[in-house]
């Protein structure tokens, strides 16, 4: 899916594989990959450490970069590579750049052969499984990068320039940081300000108001909601922060930790019943269970539905079909009632677009230096303007005009930060559980009217318990 892919969200290929339609090379092959394969690709010699070269990269060595070619495209990376070559002129013409949507197919053989690239944007439908890469010791610890002086202000370390939670997202066990999330995604309920204003409607801050608005919209021939019914793991983008708002962030922590009965929490029950009411009362766009992500977004752009659960990549992805006066915006989940544990404005916001430096890369320091360049203000602003997304650099929007959806996302984040932001980890710790099982086989069935909320809760818990008992799956927990 040409997409911005924060955690391989649009898992078209994986889902097809799960349904037996196609076969996909898996990362299981890495289980037989010797951790000492670096011998096959001798790493380049280190360079001389200096203020300009704090990571002591080899200033004349080649660099091998692979970027996921989704909704963000790859021009932002090419532009950063040009800055890298400008800083180190002897690398001119030696930066190899490849863009692909077939990350796993293309790169698993290279990992197994001990010849991986120096920097990878590990995203998309064929995103390589982080748990496997970490447990098989295939990645470089990025703390040297994080502790290096930032590009624009040498008095600050790179880690001190990043948005809250970004460093922690790259940790799995211990203090090592294996992944650097470059984008920063705001998830929520997306809508058109102009469509609401046309009918004199307000964004609903309570669930009762949501139901009233959906009823009014239905009378006008407009559906309340749509979503990618073929890939219903989009539903959690608004559902998970809704659960946290009702029951507190600890409800999501229990789910992430695969705790027994986590999915039977009263907050989960209340949230599921609320979403189920949308479909029972006919407030979901007819035919939604059969739509993919593009089709649902087009229908939303055309004003056939008011709301869609999504992430802030959606503005860039839909730019070809979004009307000029659409005035895209994102809202926080509505309050269920006065007993909610968290206030209105609670959102899910987290790092996205995960970059990794393989342990057996030929030039790992060069890969980290390119990331340092990308986290400079010039490259960050270029990224923001090109793809209408925030980056993990805390700031970077000063002096540039933001597209409507991005401006709305930033405003929502600023109002929420730091006390009203949650960051569920299920979708990057347990990709298959989150998408194919809970997303498709449970939530998708409930929202299509084929499963009750109670049955959906039981199914989610069953899937989580199976994962918890699977010794082949590396387990992670909130600290």
From TrEMBL:
Keyword Zinc in annotation: no
The entry's keywords: Signal, Transport
Per the record, the coiled-coil ranges are: none
Kindly list the places in or outside the cell where this protein is found, as annotated in its UniProt entry. Answer: Cell envelope
Q: Which Gene3D superfamilies match?
A: Periplasmic binding protein-like II (3.40.190.10)
Primary localization class, coarse: other
Which positions, given as ranges, span the membrane? none
> Which InterPro entries has this protein been placed in?
Bact_solute-bd_prot1 (IPR050490), Chitin_NgcE (IPR022386), SBP (IPR006059)
Source organism superkingdom:
Bacteria
NCBIfam families, sorted: chitin_NgcE
Q: Which family does it belong to?
A: Belongs to the bacterial solute-binding protein 1 family.
What protein name does the entry list? N-acetylglucosamine transport system substrate-binding protein
């Amino acid at each position: 899916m040409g997409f911005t892919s924060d955690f391989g969200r649009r898992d078209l290929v994986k889902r097809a594989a799960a349904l037996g339609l196609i076969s996909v090379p898996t990362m299981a092959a890495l289980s037989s990959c010797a951790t000492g394969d670096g011998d096959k690709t001798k790493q380049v010699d280190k360079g001389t450490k200096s203020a300009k070269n704090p990571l002591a990269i080899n200033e004349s060595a080649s660099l091998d970069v692979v970027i996921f070619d989704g909704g963000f495209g790859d021009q932002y990376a090419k532009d950063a590579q040009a800055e890298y070559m400008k800083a180190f002129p002897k690398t001119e013409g030696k930066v190899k750049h490849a863009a692909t949507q077939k990350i796993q197919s293309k790169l698993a053989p290279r990992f197994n052969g001990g010849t991986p690239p120096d920097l990878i944007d590990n995203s998309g439908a064929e995103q390589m499984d982080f748990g496997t890469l970490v447990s098989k010791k295939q990645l470089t610890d990025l703390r040297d990068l994080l502790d290096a002086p930032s590009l624009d202000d040498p008095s600050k370390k790179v880690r001190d320039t990043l948005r809250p939670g970004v460093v922690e997202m790259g940790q799995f066990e211990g203090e090592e940081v294996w992944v650097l999330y470059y984008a920063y995604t705001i998830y929520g309920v997306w809508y058109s300000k102009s469509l609401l204003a046309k009918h004199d409607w307000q964004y609903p801050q309570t669930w009762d108001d949501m139901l009233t608005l959906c009823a009014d919209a239905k009378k006008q021939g407009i559906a309340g909601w749509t979503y990618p019914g073929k890939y219903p793991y989009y539903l959690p983008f608004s559902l998970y922060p809704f659960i946290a708002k009702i029951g507190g962030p600890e409800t999501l922590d229990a789910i992430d930790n695969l705790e027994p009965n986590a999915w039977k929490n009263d907050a989960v029950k209340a949230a599921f019943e609320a979403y189920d009411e949308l479909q029972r009362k006919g407030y979901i766009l007819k035919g939604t269970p059969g739509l993919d992500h593009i089709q649902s977004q087009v229908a939303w752009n055309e004003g056939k539905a008011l709301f869609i659960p999504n992430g802030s990549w959606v503005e860039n992805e839909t730019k070809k079909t979004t009307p000029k006066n659409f005035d895209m915006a994102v809202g926080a989940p509505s309050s269920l009632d006065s007993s909610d544990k968290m206030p209105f404005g609670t959102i899910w916001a987290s790092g996205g677009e995960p970059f990794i430096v393989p342990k057996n890369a030929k030039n790992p320091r060069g890969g980290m230096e390119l990331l340092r360049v990308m986290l400079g203000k010039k490259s960050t602003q270029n990224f923001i303007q090109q793809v209408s997304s925030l980056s993990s650099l805390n700031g970077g929007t000063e002096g540039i005009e933001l597209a409507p959806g991005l401006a709305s996302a930033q405003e929502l984040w600023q109002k929420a930060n730091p006390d009203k932001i949650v960051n569920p980890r299920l979708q990057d710790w347990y990709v298959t559980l989150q998408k194919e099982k809970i997303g498709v086989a449970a939530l998708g069935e409930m929202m299509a009217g084929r499963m009750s909320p109670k049955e959906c809760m039981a199914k989610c818990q069953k899937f989580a318990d199976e994962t918890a008992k699977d010794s082949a799956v590396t387990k992670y927990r909130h600290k």
